[in-house]
Write a structure and sequence with these properties.
about 150 residues, mainly alpha, Hypothetical protein af1432, globular
């Protein structure tokens, strides 16, 4: 396994172990991370960078238990975590920072890694919860990503 990803997993696990809902937080963080890596590989992007962004995308929520400003706070936390490992280049940190910062802006188009994280975050619940009608605000995005995953190539 990639040393960068292992390092971030260890740090993320520490936050998860201190959280109120360890199972849900771990499941969501690791699930979105896995889907991020899968989509990145399919789209010709670096799966490790995407997996790390997926792992950290809700790190502020995991730490605080609230979604209030979790995108900005999470991006700031991720920047600090990644810088602290000494394993990531400045450009990689910026890519992950922006993906986390923008992951809830699903009606807007951003950079490729941002879109991977948005898509992974909306598709993960589809595979892990009882089927429900998707939120209309993400229905088109969800259909596109499901189509992408179901078609080879």
């Amino acid at each position: 396994m990639d040393n960068k990803l292992q390092s971030v997993q260890k740090i993320t696990n520490e936050y998860i172990n201190e959280s109120n809902d360890k199972v849900k937080n771990a499941s969501h963080a690791y699930g979105v991370s896995g889907f991020s890596a899968l989509l990145a590989k399919k789209r010709g992007l670096n799966p490790t960078i995407s997996a790390v962004a997926g792992l950290l995308h809700d790190i502020s929520f995991i730490r605080t238990g609230t979604y209030d400003n979790h995108d900005k706070q999470g991006a700031d936390m991720a920047r600090e975590i990644l810088s602290g490992t000494g394993l990531f280049e400045a450009e990689e940190i910026e890519i992950i920072y922006n993906a986390i910062l923008r992951h809830d802006l699903r009606q807007e188009q951003h950079e490729p890694y941002d879109e991977v994280l948005k898509d992974a975050d909306i598709i993960y619940p589809y595979f892990t919860q009882l089927p429900t009608e998707p939120n209309p605000s993400v229905a088109d995005r969800l259909a596109k990503v499901l189509g992408e995953l179901l078609h080879a190539g």
